[in-house]
Amino acid sequence: MAKHKERLELERFSFGIGDRFAHQAKAQLKAFQQLALDGVDVVPVWNKSNREHTLIGSNPESVHHFASEAVTALGWRNNWHVDADHIRLETVDRFIGCSDFFTIDVAESIGKPASSEKVETFVERHSELIGDIRIQGIAHPFPLSEGDLVAIVGKYLLAVEEAGRIYRHILVKKGPTPKFITEVSMDETDSPQTPPELLIILAMLSDEGIRVQTIAPKFTGRFNKGVDYVGDISKFEKEFNDDIAVIAHAVDAYDLPRNLKLSVHSGSDKFSLYPVIHRALVRSHAGIHIKTAGTTWLEELIGLAESGDEGAKFVKEIYAQALEHAEELCAPYASVIDIDRSKLPSSDRFAALNGSQIASAIRHIQQNPQFNANIRQLLHVAFKLAAKTGSRFTNLLVKNEEIVAQQVTENLYQRHLRPLFIG
Known about the structure:
Radius of gyration: 22 Å
């Protein structure tokens, strides 16, 4: 394999946007246009996972199609990308032709035993990772013994090797002049990676020949679906700043792409973290990639609730079904939701609400006393119930396009892009 064969370069600021039902690409792009008028260019990256395609019955080509339509319709002149989100070797092929961004998910391989011979070879090759490791921007060196290094390599080496197999598979499938962006995701696992672990992972990625441009580690705290971060913000801030310093060090030490940056994943809204991340970006001049998977679907429900009796009726039906099938819907997301069932209204009580009250219960404005994070989380994982209604739901989106699009644009611009990139 020729060295540095991958040429497409991800911009400093990029933002991943989900559009599960493929009706909001224009509304999403308008938020980026508004931010550009504020003087900040952020590249939209439309992302959708194989699991979401399977649940909804869509195909990867549809993501590129509707994103391209929005770009043309709105005259967007900046770059944009389509992300094959959380792909693995067995799912990547259907994304090859329509994606230029690949999030390689190897979280399932973390902790599985690696070859002791390969672990030993890595440790022998990287003696610089033993002792007191000094990183510019981190106040104190962190000590790593040979035993520490062996343990960390043993935990992550198999995952990195799996990432290498997927990466090389994409290279081959993309043809003689491949142009794509590689992200490696390790966030969907139980325990966060420490800055020393991140440094060792980056050294392993370099050895594997992966031209990774963004890496998504798991951070301290909980990133629950559809709601704000739960955890020690000061601890997250130190961890985030340390990770930025580790990446800058690894880029120089291990010949990684100059634009390598952190990615913060999950369906969490991360509102309380945006000021922390903004400060870090201003201070360090680093880049960032953020994902907000799934929240567009909630904005669609808010728009429908406010659109009139027909839309509100639909939302009430979805809630009643979600409440009835809560165990089944929540099980796949057990590690990323915290729902207090006692604070979920009965379907009858929810049905008695008017459209404005429903919208206030779902819309993520925490200071609003009507906001209910438990309702929001339950509806977040209930999107496949809407998919089962087929054209009934999508026809409602078309019929109420203006009010739904307004919710999508406003949420993305006012609650995400401005706080993160303008402050």
